[in-house]
Amino acid sequence: MTVTTLSSREFNQGASEAKKAANHGPVFITDRGRPAHVLLSFEEYQRLTKQRRNIADALAMPGISDIEFEPPRVTIETRTADFS
After folding, report:
1. Biggest CA pair distance of the chain
2. 27: exposed, middle or buried (C-beta count within 10 Å: 0-12, 13-18, 19+)?
3. Closest C-alpha to 39, from 11, 67, 65, 63
4. Distance CA 79, CA 81 (A)
5. How far lies 69's CA from each of 14, 15, 54, 58, 75, in Å?
6. CA angle 7–9–12, rounded 5-degree value
7. Which residues pair with 5 in a beta bridge?
8. What is the pLDDT of residues 3-61, one digit of tens each?
9. Could you tell me how many helices (H) and strands (E) the chain has, helices first?
10. For residue 11, what pLDDT is reported?
11. What pLDDT does 53 receive?
């Protein structure tokens, strides 16, 4: 794994090279000498986040219909406001 550091200006002038460098390791992008952003390949991002799914993806998974889920019913009643 190769770590690359670029200034914002270098990144703006060479985005293509930064993307190529991200295939070999993280690319740190600095603003005024301080780390501000990190560019990763999508595969590396998925590995780091362990491919977490959102709720819509999870509910669309095969076999989800086999899970029993019966949430309790809730009754919402109105009441008069007490302004005293």
Report:
1. 70
2. buried
3. 11
4. 6
5. 52, 48, 19, 15, 19
6. 110
7. 28
8. 999 999 999 999 999 999 999 999 999 999 999 999 999 888 888 877 666 777 777 77
9. 4, 3
10. 95
11. 67
What pTM does this model have? 0.58
Amino acid (1-letter code) at residue 61: M
CA pair distance 2, 70, nearest whole angstrom: 51
Output the pLDDT for position 10: 96
The whole-angstrom separation of Cα 24 and Cα 19 is 9
Identity at 45, one-letter amino acid code: Y
Q: Is 33 left (phi over 0), alpha (psi -120 to 50) or beta?
A: left
